[in-house]
Amino acid sequence: MKRLPDEWEGSFVETVVPASQSQWRLDRYLSETDLPVTRSRIQRWIRSGAVSVNSVVVEKCGHGVSEGDVVAVTIPETPPSTAEPEPIPLDIVYEDEALLVVNKAAGMVVHPACGHAHSTLVNALLHHCGSLEQFDDPVRPGIVHRLDKDTSGLMIVAKREDAHAFLSRQLAERRIKRGYTGLAWGRFAEPSGTIDAPVGRHPRFRQRMAVVEENRGRRAVTHYRVSESMEDGSLLALALETGRTHQIRVHLAHLGHPVIGDPVYGGRHKRLAGTAPRRRPKLKKMLDVLRRQALHASELEFIHPFSGRPHSFKATLPDDMKQAVVMLSDSTCTTGP
After folding, report:
1. Predicted TM-score (pTM) of this structure
2. Is there a catalytic annotation at residue 148?
3. Does the domain at residues 6-74 carry the CATH identifier 3.10.290.10?
4. pLDDT by residue (tens digit) across 267-287?
5. Among 6, 34, 96, 148, which one carries the catalytic annotation?
6. Domain boundaries in the chain?
7. Angstrom distances, CA of residue 336 to CA of 192, 256, 287
8. Using one digit for the tens of pLDDT, what is the confidence trace for 19-32?
9. How far apart are CA 253 and CA 240, in angstroms?
10. Exposure pattern of 270-305 as b/e (b: 16+ CB <10 Å)?
11. Which CATH class is domain 177-304+317-328?
């Protein structure tokens, strides 16, 4: 396979279809441009949502282009093939010969990926316990489930292949219980509820997820309970029945209550602009403290792969979320909506 030159990776290429190539297939048209890659790789890019025609993402290789069409390609970066040990501090809640439970800090990426080759949780784990190097996956050794970069909280990491297989099976069978604490904008009409709405790639903005039609996404179920209701926001206890990418963030935004601090799903400056002017300075100070989405994986329960006994763990809110709760609270706050 032809290797893409390093200087091309992560770049954005835009071309205009000439009259001589009108009605060509999209993949054929791009293969005749200056992109130094094979047609098969271009087809993979198209199917992954990296190509747009006139600002609309097109995922069909056989899409016909017309004269004057603007075809844009966001060239994917090549992900790292290995991870190296790095001496990064870890907050280890529990550890034995089979697994670890880690309280991941906000801002830490779980495993090496495009744009994040170093300083990830996996790099830290490889330094802490070298036995992870025996896993077949050199980039995600022992990882059972993931958290977004700016979501903090509890994660299970397997130290052995048999433990990883057991825990992954539990996760697939929805027997691992994962509880979250979050802050969302606004007051909820009901004290608790269930959001059952399919989640898939956003039809136009491919780096985001969205609630989509059933045939374009996967079933996603989130349960929530209002722990405290304040004038501008609500403290929530959340539980995942499924584990889709950005699920809680997408579901709460879909309800009109985005996670506070979330810049991707309308929970930061966009929402701040819609608040009462008298409250805005205080809320802006809160967002200055809370530099990420206010979401924390606070509870975890699973069956141990060797003992067969249930294990449960809780992690208190990190300081930035504690401060945000205090700044949201005032004399009008109540319990429940």
Report:
1. 0.76
2. yes
3. yes
4. 998 898 888 899 899 999 999
5. 148
6. 6-74, 92-172, 177-304+317-328
7. 9, 18, 23
8. 999 999 999 999 99
9. 16
10. ebbeebeeeeeeebeebbeebebbbbbbbbbebeeb
11. alpha beta
